[in-house]
Amino acid sequence: MMKILVAEDDALLRDVIYNILVLEGYEVHSTVNGRQALDLFVSVKPDLIVSDIMMPEMDGFELLEEVRSLPQGVTMPFLFLTARTERTDVKKARALGVDDYLFKPFNAWELIEAVRTRLNRRKSVELFDTRTAHLQTIVMLTNVIETRDPYTAGHVDRVRRLALSLGFALDWNTEEIAILEFGAILHDIGKIIVPRSVLTKAEPLNDEEWEVIRQHPQVGAQMLEGVDHLRPAIPYVLYHHEWWNGGGYPFGLKGTDIPPEGRLLAIVDAFDAMTSDRPYRKGLSVADALVETRKNSGVYFDPEMADVFLKTYKE
Ligand SMILES: [Fe+2]
Ligand SMILES: [Fe+2]
Asked: Model-level pTM?
């Protein structure tokens, strides 16, 4: 249940606000001034503070400043209640970085709407922050792996960009795109088991060495198995070396038996591999890699996705 801390010195208005918000299903803690609200702030841990500006003992602005100075109050959302005539108050509030007011007098519906809007905005900001934090952590992890292999430097980032633009071009939804980004970044994470000597070998690899490389999709998938928010990215890791004609690994799946995540990533991963230099060969030009992709459409790659890729790449 969302918690709202209310500071309002007018007893009648305080009761009205309390009742409206309780009826809406919020847990409400009401106080008579800023001082009391501040005392309750730490123990209540509210999701939102609704505060009058003019109050005895500690007014709304002082409350805001005090809350902002606490570690748990830095991003605490405020909704100020103020009379339309208190122009100077509004100016002062703007200066303090507050842009949420509800002007008195307000009706129940306006209060509910203002509270809901403010809480929703907080939720999406939080979601964004968490997502960004996760992304940065896994980028760090893949950077660690990339430093072991100077020849693939930048591969993960290029695959991520190519995969995102192909995902958008295929009209995948926001949720799918979000998972796609994680999957593209993590797709080669299982390469952690490949010895550095194999990754940097100047000669073509022998059978034994290929065998180790071919394990990386399953090893990577196992690594993500125990992480709740990364598990949806597993299909990218597990199926990105499957080929449309059934000649890929680890399972040798064919056509649409390969999950779409794997089919998409196979195209952009191979495209970047073709254009990159390797110890034992020089990379293709972009033009030649596009020709190769076209040639291998329906052989290695899902022909419909390859079509979209070629079209979007040229644009
Ligand atoms: Fe791979
Ligand atoms: Fe790769």
From this structure: 0.67
Identify whether the C-beta of residue 299 lies closer than 8 Å to the C-beta of residue 248: no
Contact 189, 223 (CB under 8 A): yes
Taking the chain, what is the end-to-end CA distance rounded to the nearest angstrom?
49
d(CA 214, CA 268): 18
User: Torsion over CA of 182, 184, 189 and 195, rounded to 10 degrees?
Assistant: -160
Which ligand number lies closest to the CA of residue 216? 1
Domain identity same for 87 and 22: yes
Domain span at residue 52 reads 3-122
Q: Flag the least confident range among 105-114, 138-147, 160-169, 216-225.
A: 138-147
Q: Residue 21 belongs to a domain with what CATH number?
A: 3.40.50.2300
Q: What angle do CA 44, 45, 47 make, to 5 degrees?
A: 120
Residue 169 C-alpha to ligand 1 middle, in angstroms?
23
